[in-house]
Design a protein that fits this description.
Elements lengths: L6 H18 L3 H12 L5 H12 L1 H11 L10 H16 L6 H15 L4 H15 L5
Helix pairs in contact: 1-2, 1-3, 1-5, 4-5, 5-6, 5-7, 6-7
Length: about 140
């Protein structure tokens, strides 16, 4: 049995499942199997369940992104950035009891540093920072 995954590793796994599923057009379960097989990625039930929960909320999450992204419409945001923003907003809105909003923002910025363009971390930080301030979750 492998070592227990960290919160960061789980979050990164959820991001990869969502991104790959969106690109391929296949469901999360099939994507998980493909990732395990092709990339020898550890995929847990928590990752799959969280990815499915985030995907179910895309319309709502994209609405928030559109409202707080002052410079780009949702359709003009890269898929990588959109996936990172969706995951962070899901954590802020639906997992805030176990994941502090500022931690979700920091983790989103870290994911963007690894998977997005260099300047995108500022964009992601700005959208999420504006959102948590506006809804009073920045305390």
């Amino acid at each position: 049995m492998s070592a227990k995954l960290t919160r960061h590793e789980i979050r990164e796994g959820v991001f990869l499942l969502l991104f790959q599923s969106d690109l391929s057009g296949i469901d999360i379960d099939e994507t998980a199997g493909a990732c395990e097989e092709a990339y020898e990625m550890t995929v847990t039930e928590e990752m799959k369940n969280t990815a499915k929960a985030v995907a179910e909320k895309y319309a709502e999450l994209d609405g928030i992104i559109g409202e707080y992204s002052k410079k780009r419409s949702v359709s003009r945001i890269s898929e990588v950035n959109k996936t990172i923003l969706r995951l962070a907003l899901y954590e802020i809105n639906y997992r805030g009891d176990s994941i502090p909003p500022k931690a979700a923002v920091n983790e989103a910025v870290e994911l963007s540093k690894k998977y997005a363009e260099k300047q995108d971390s500022s964009f992601i930080n700005g959208v999420l920072g504006n959102y948590i301030k506006a809804v009073g979750k920045d305390a």
